[in-house]
Fold:
Amino acid sequence: MSAYLIGKMEIRDHEAYARYKAVTPDIIKRHGGRFLTRGGSKITLEGREETRRIVIVEFDSPQAAEAFYRSRDYQQAIKLREGAAIMDLMIVGGFE
Structure:
């Protein structure tokens, strides 16, 4: 079953966040992930307007998404993001 890693970021330091953003695509690719959106434009249809950056990455399974997150490479990347952005991150299972 596919799974989606969904991140919502409030960026506080764009320079520092750019360093994090530069290293994550290769790490995601090595773990079998694929960006579906990476900060694209948003249109609010209902509810509060979402002003945070939205990133959605598709993985083959929830386990693959979690393995990516817990990987040593990504844990190092997180250190680049510390203080640069406030992140809400979740894994959502798809359906077949």
User: Anything to note?
Assistant: The chain is about 40% helix and 30% strand. The CA atoms of residues 4 and 92 lie 5 Å apart.
